[in-house]
User: What shape does this take?
Amino acid sequence: MFIAQETYGAVKRVAVNPPRWRNSAIFVAAAAAQVAAGAGHAQDFPSKTVRIVASEAGGSGDFVSRLVAQGLTSAFGQQVVVDNRGGGVVAGDVVAKSPPDGYTLLLYGNTLWLLPLMRKQIPYDPYRDFAPVTVAARAVNVLVVHPSLPVKSVKELIALARARPGDLNFSSAAPGTMNHLASELFKSMAKIDIVRVSYRGSASALTAVMSGEVQMMFAAAAPARPHVQSGRVKALAVSTATRSPSYPDLPTVAEAGLPGFEAVSVHGIFVPVKTPESLVARLNQEIVRILQRPESRERLAGIGAEPVGGTPAQLAATIKDEVARMGRIIREAGIQER
Assistant: This one.
């Protein structure tokens, strides 16, 4: 039986030393070693309820965590519950302070490892406090513009922005969210001057594009789809490195004019550091098996996401790459989250 628990709370923020980003190579190597050394299964695991700490209820991270929890409940013969927390700082702090025994997992997105670059006081270190298990899924973003904008492609949008510096606006949710970072990356790589307009959430940011209040946005694939189909917004490209099943007819931003562009919402799974390697290997094996099921791909497609799976080392490498790419953008744009 699958039971979902929702827990809300606050955490006391304490100052810590800045994350040791220079140690990311060690993080990748350690993750690779975990898989090699953890080939043997922990036969007596689990003997009690397993908890997945995730984002607030209702979001894509919550959906992915429940899919994984359901699969693990069946595989383990033990209850796997979802513990919803109201923010990356809270969720990260809870798991960082949990016993490294395999019974507490963290499923969270890019904010987990990017937030320390945007805020000085974080009660966890993404390298020092967590051991990677696998990339669970990635969520596609789609570049949409208002229909009145006289462009039909990424190249035409870039040309228009260069011809009208400071005249075009893009919408986003809170500072540091993926729709914000994707737009800042686009702005930097295209060498254009476009102006950010901030909204309370991604839904209101998308509504602003539909109304013509702003001209463009990197929107989550699933919420944008009905508005693309109705013609209320015009889709130009997807933000993934390769074409997405969510929008099979759309080119990627990279192939449409900005080679090397990629900005996706990644959902990674972690356990507290020092969790036995055999338990990390067991969790990785079971979760990857769940993600590879056709029904998992179908369910994730409904929210504009794609299952990934893979080794702990691959998750570590994904984080290392994104911290390098988005870290530069965060510094250039002076992005800070309070």
